[in-house]
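User: I'm curious what two different proteins look like when written out as structure tokens. Can you demonstrate?

Assistant: Sure. I'll show them one after the other, since each token string lines up with its own sequence. Here's the first protein:
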Amino acid sequence: MIRSKISKTHIKLFVLSSLVLTVIFLFLGFLMLSSIERYAFQEKTRSSVSTAKAYSYSVSKNIAARDALIALLDEKIEIAGETLLIHGGLAGEDLTDLAKDLKVDTIDLYNPEGEVIASTLPGNIGWKVYEEHPVYSFYKSGDRSFVEEIRTNTISGLDYKYGYFRLQDGGFFQVGVSAETINEFISSFALMEAFGEIKKSNALTCLCFIDESHEVVASTDPENVSKVVTDPQVLELLSKDVETGKLFDVNGQEVYQTYVPIFHEGERYGTLMVGEDFTSTRRLIDRVSYAGTVVMVSLYAGIIFLLLSTQRKNKELLEAAYFDEASELPNQRLLREILEERKRDGEPKKQAVVLIQSLEYKNLHHEYGNEHLKDLVKVMVKRITEECRFNVQVFSYTEDRFLVLVEGYESKNELVALTKEITKVMELPVRTTKGIDILKVKFGITEIRPDSAKRSLDRILKEASVALSTISKADKVNYAFFSELSGRKLQMEEVVEQELRSVIADDYMTSFYLVFQPLVSMEDGSIVAFEALSRFVSKKYGEIPPVKFIEIAEKKDLILPIGKIILTKACRYAKKLKDKGYGHIRVSVNISGLQILSEEFLNDTLKTMEKEQVDGSSLMFEISENSLVDHVDTLNEKLQVLREKGIVISLDNFGVGSSSLHHLKGLRVDMLKIDKLFIGPLAKGDPSTLITKDIINMAKGMGLQVVAEGVEEEGQLDYLAKHSCDLVQGYLLSAPLEEEEANLLLIASPYTLWPKVMEKNRIYHGGSGHEGYDVNFDL
């Protein structure tokens, strides 16, 4: 019974599968027939265009011959003119004899007033130059000579090519050569002869040349010559500057007509039309389609199920072995086999591996999640493979990185061109269910040289990663090639990374510490806040600049835990200040965009404040301008929570990022810090300082307090006092200080900072308490 049920189940499955596959097969058969016709049509198009291009060469030779003859006419006219200039005065000379001697068709002598006083054509005598006539330009120019293009004579109506030559008395003469002979040669005889030769050696339905006025100048069918094309479909094809074609029904016969524009030295002279009989091609399509249908239906219908099943199984196995499930891209195993195959074959062509990283991955991942990123990566890969003109293969690597194998390039310049091309297509807006994103990428490149063919794929990928890691935000380019120097740089970064991880494991380590630079009130010279600045001393390399170790932390995904440590240390110092009676002085902490966009930021921040026994009235957060522009709504929600806790929010580095006044109005911030780029010129009287004054006025108009950082000279302090800047920060007042030195500064500030600032206040505002200042942290 069980066996019978299983048998029936198998039969039903087989019947059902057979029916489904039969439908699929019929559909595939339809696609096959359509593909045969489409392929044949495409091949006909390619062959017709190729044929037409070949014939266009004969037409181009005639155009070149015309240009050569025109050049000879120019030379002939110039020689005749120079001969007459050497001859001297022409008045009283027999111009007809001179024209015969010089083998030109006409000579006209003009007096200084522009009137013809002698001519080989009596009818021209007495004619005078007028403003709109072509001769007028030379008459007024003062040039010694000029040869113009072929034009129609105003009096005779015949085509001539004229040259003009100025005499010493201010008059001039013109030498003309008839252009009728060359025009007749080019317009009819030469092309007709060329078409005749082509007609003898090729079985074409029609071949003709159509000029820019849509007149048939030459044709293998003499009856078509001199006819003007009026068919709208043909006129549309003639209007295009690229090769194109279309199938026409000509007297019941299918003819494929190809239209090739003819250019010579950048100028379009007309269009060559080549017509070919489509009957044989149509007959071939019918025969192949019929044969294919008969063979497929009669021979393969019985075994299609097994073939499809086997194919499906094989495909699944192959995809599991060689493709990444998440991205659907070929994996590193396939890349390794391709490289090994190239080694075995001994192919000499050059190879390189390019590691591409999405710069926006982390922010987008935090905001939209993993599935959204998968969709974006698929779009990126599709653009690279479909829109780049280079022959490349794309492979999976990590979630935010993928590999591109480039083969057969000539030089590094081509690899650089590849990165620019990929950058171009990547930065096109991508529309998803979450909105519109613009993807920015950077590239690490390593070449697989013949002399280093023994390198493993792991080594190659390591080199590409090293090259990628050397690119910083300050670099003007978004690509880097691997070198030994970058290898040493990687070694240094790996050491720093391990030491930073040790700091993360134990935030009491003294190698990572904070220094504090005061923010001083311009109203009374008091210290209202300290900005906490991180410092790191490596055991192996000594003190590492903040820009460098922050960059390494970002590359190694350590910026979030490092940011938490900085906040923790800042809270500890704020607690000490409060315990010493300086609870009104805040500690300012720089918060990166990646930190504030993380889902855990608010929760972690509030937990740290609770653990270190610090409330919001003791803290200030400085947020980089660039981190706000693309995430205003999300950030405003978090900023509002922080402000409700009493934390002051300052917009850092204002003026050098990409935010606008529109974005600034929408941000929930309390303070604006002007970047030192705008403070530096203040002491020099630079006209650009007007911008700084406008920023101060704008911020105050919006109810924001204004901080100027990077104040290092008296002149800068003068300017800021004059324009009522609220707070100042910089080496003129104090360098960043370690904790004990900062405490001493609090004691000494009435004797150091206060007099210096108050003197400026007295000079520009007549004493303390000026209404232009607004240092108030009450939220």
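Here's a second, unrelated protein for contrast:
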Amino acid sequence: MASAPRPDGTDELRVFAQLLKDRKAAVAAAVVLSLLSAAATLVLPLQVRDLVMALSEDERPVGPLLTMAGLAVGAGLASAGSSYLLARAGEGLVSEARFRIASHILTLPLRRVRREGAGNLVARANSDSTQLRSVVDVGVAQLPSSLFLAIGTLIAMGLLDGVLLLVVLATFTVAGLGIFLCVRSIRSGVERQQNAVGTMSQNMTAAVLSLPTVKAFLAERQVADTLGHSIEDARSAAVSVARVTALVGPTMQLGQQLSIVAVMVTSGARLASGDLHIGEFAAFIVYLLQLVAPLTLLVSGVARMQSGLAARARLNSVLTIAPEHPGGLSPVEPSPTASAVEFESVTYRDGGRTIIHEATFAAPRRGLTAIVGPSGAGKTTLLGLTERFLLPESGRIAVCGLPVEQWPLHQLRGAISYVDQSFTLVEGTVRQNLLLGRDDDTGALPDAELWRALEALALREAVEALPDGLDTELGRAEDLSGGQRQRLAAARVLLRDSAIVLFDEPTSQLDSENEERLRTLMRTLAEERAVLVIAHRISTVQDADLIVVVDEGRTVDQGTHEELLTRSALYQELVHGQSLRGGGVRRPAGGEPVPAGAVVR
């Protein structure tokens, strides 16, 4: 039986707390190295002052030159070390965030996943998590070291000449107001950009998944035009952010240029009066030129932080979605004699539409139960309710005598094998698909059992012909045919010790030979298990121990093939291939004999 999933819950992602987890020493070292680099940069202009003073007094400037070279090299090495440590820690955080959100997405209710869109969720796990690096790079090192360097520079400038410092602050204040307005609009723009990227990813994912149909209908241009709209929306949002961001640098340069002009004018008078010495003036100019770098990093850092914070908000909007209810807290003991699946007055609504209306039936513990009905009657929904992919609005659903709410979700799904309409295979090898859901607790199966399962569905030769046999990656350069993939998905059932097996239209795309193999498999399984099958062919239906007729979400009749032929006009219509919604006349009870190959629609 599959082990219980262990979701992270609905806690929000806390970037710095997650970053520091198991990385305190590396992050602390990165911060210290960053501050040391800033301190070395801060001391450098003072050496310029000493160099100028030494030259003006005809002294040898070897000492200041060597000190300046040592400070420059030390600052560079410290900065490089800090960047590496932060990059390693940041990539670890991104990896953990991706795994956490991917794991959480897998625990979400199916309805919510479909509402969010697969492409949009993939974009959050991929591009949004990457944006978290900006929070780490900026928040841990860039902002603290830039702030330290900016404040230290201003203090040093004040010690050199307080009047010139006031001139600098006055001119930079003008630029600061403009930058403040820019930064305010960046975050909202980034959120629009990331939402547009998510929509674009969703549309592209849908287009790629439907590519065979697109090609068959020569719709490449039409679909490309539709994609073009979402791509244009993403481009427009990105340009909007770039437009505002582009103003930050020039605004800062304007503040620097105004400061230089004002300082030159003011310092000329102060040099002439003797209130300012040439060495102090040189050091002040170097500090002024140096001040722009930390201020620019501060401003650009705050702008980059908006991207990271917007990404964190989008990630948290998924992480705070409640996962599927885990069901009962304690393992249950299924009744060996109760019905395998029992519906009692079950109603299910979706978006205001009633999909299932007071459905009632009981599938025996052993044997084949067929569910038939016209297209859109709600047959697949009944299977989804059984698996608790969907939750009913009212009524009672029991599995092996116990309400599904009492079952722990992992135990319930471990007791049921499910083969969906698409015979879905996961990305991976033949072996991985056969062993899907088996982990260290349940253990791997010997190859002999895998080959027996494949042989039961006439797949052994096809898999042996693949380059790596059981270990061949499917879906890429090497693959099975559509019918073979269907049979591979069905073969998984033979390898699971589940009491109930659900088949959703299993013979819809099989030829007569492979259809017969699958019917043989279902009959074999039905000897020891409960098999529920949504059927559309009379060859499957007529062997069923129980047939449930569904129409417009209601279970309108149930019985054996012979019983329904004598009393159910709808069943007769389905057997004879009439279209319920096409205005066909219902055949009276006791109608014509049923053709062996008729299709139940």
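A detail about the second structure: The first helix runs from residue 15 to 20.
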